[in-house]
Write a structure and sequence with these properties.
Blueprint lengths: L13 E3 H10 L2 E5 L12 E8 L2 E4 L6 E4 L2 E7 L1
Parallel strand pairs: 2-6
Antiparallel strand pairs: 1-3, 3-6, 4-5
């Protein structure tokens, strides 16, 4: 399932951790994993993309406000 040069992840599709690693290294995006901090512990482990979002809110510690960031965010789960 090699997908060199990924420029997006598609909901419902499966990707190996090393493919997600390559994607996030070359893309300005956020990955949220149900596998906590073990997403990249096994490069061959497969993950399914559950959801894709065009952005997210985050709280700023600088001004105490919530700001919407227009940055792709993906939720993945271990298969």
């Amino acid at each position: 399932m090699s997908k060199p040069g990924l420029n997006t992840l598609k909901p419902g599709e499966h990707y190996k951790a090393n493919e997600i690693d390559s994607f996030i290294t070359t893309t300005d995006a956020v990955i949220l994993s149900t596998n906590d901090n073990q997403l990249f512990s096994d490069p061959e482990r497969e993950f399914r993309v559950l959801h894709e979002s065009e952005g997210f809110f985050e709280h700023s510690s600088e001004d105490g406000e919530k700001h919407f960031r227009e940055k792709k965010a993906y939720v993945v789960e271990k298969v």
